[in-house]
Amino acid sequence: ARSQTGQQRLLLKQEILGHTDSGALSFEAHLQQALQRDEFFLVYQPQQHLADGHISAVEALLRWRHASRGVVSPAEFIPLLEESGQIVDVGDWVIGEACRQLAEWQRAGLHLRMSINLSAVQFNQPDFPQRIMAHVTANRLLPKQLELEITESAAMSHPEQTLKMLLELKDLGFSIAIDDFGTGHSTYHYLLRFPIDTLKIDRSFTNSVTEERSCRTIVRSLTTLSQGLGFKTIAEGVETQRQRDYLEALDVDEIQGFWLAKPMTADRLSAFVAAVGRRLSQPR
Ligand code: C2E
Ligand code: MG
Ligand code: MG
Ligand code: MG
Hints:
This is GGDEF domain-containing response regulator. This protein has helices at about 5-20, 25-35, 75-85, 85-105, 120-125, 130-140, 150-155, 160-170, 190-195, 205, 215-230, 240-250, 265-280; strands spanning about 40-50, 55-65, 70, 115, 145-150, 175-180, 200, 230-235, 255. By secondary structure, it is of the alpha/beta class. It has an 8-stranded mixed beta barrel with strand order 1-2-4-5-6-7-8-9, surrounded by 4 helices. The structure holds ligand C2E and magnesium ion (3 copies).
């Protein structure tokens, strides 16, 4: 999640606590209840393979349906969960639910890769590989069907620790993506040593690629770097056809963004994939 000041966090806590019948509860207890009351849910945003147009993957994105505030964005509450350490349990729930949904789609003949966002707090738990494997096995999936996203800034904050964990996860067969690439500060040294499969170019760059020459330069060099190192390149935050066409000309592998689709519930996703499939099979 993007940076949030301590003041903003405090305000959100107060707002959420103030509007509920459970005013006596601490904020942490409130979040714990959210888990027990099934107030968290996942939406899925598709990723499209540019070369042939098929929907290759979806990214699972967390939402909190709050009793009085409505649906709260993860950018707001994930920092709070990280602060209290509750992201470990909530993150575990995300993985379990994403795996359950992927297995359900697979049984229905819908074959997709599932991208899951990991928080550094969650990812640095020593038993993280066992926890995620438990969900994969219980749902009869293979690790390679999951792409684990860790942001560039999280990955680079304790790079030796990250390296150790990524190697363990890669060994188990998981696919690894560096998220929000371009917003952190990578050392080339670790870009070479981390077992990376995919770089996701941050939407702040892709989004202004058709308006600003400086953004084009950055996107072009990030893409060249990614391609040269043999990674798959995904551009996030693609909002217009012109942005899409520009990225295609750069040979970006996949795109994700509002131009293709906004994040959606699981039931709508299968209809969306079917519609894209029909469009692709129509003679032009
Ligand atoms: P992210 O992983 O970079 O996910 C992409 C975010 O960009 C999503 O925001 C998505 O809705 C938004 N987005 C996608 N396409 C466009 C576009 O064309 N234009 C614009 N303006 N936005 C677009 P969302 O769902 O609010 O999530 C925000 C961040 O919260 C995520 O950024 C990720 O870092 C974090 N997050 C979400 N779910 C989870 C989770 O389950 N666990 C953890 N640890 N973090 C999560
Ligand atoms: Mg982000
Ligand atoms: Mg992500
Ligand atoms: Mg991102």
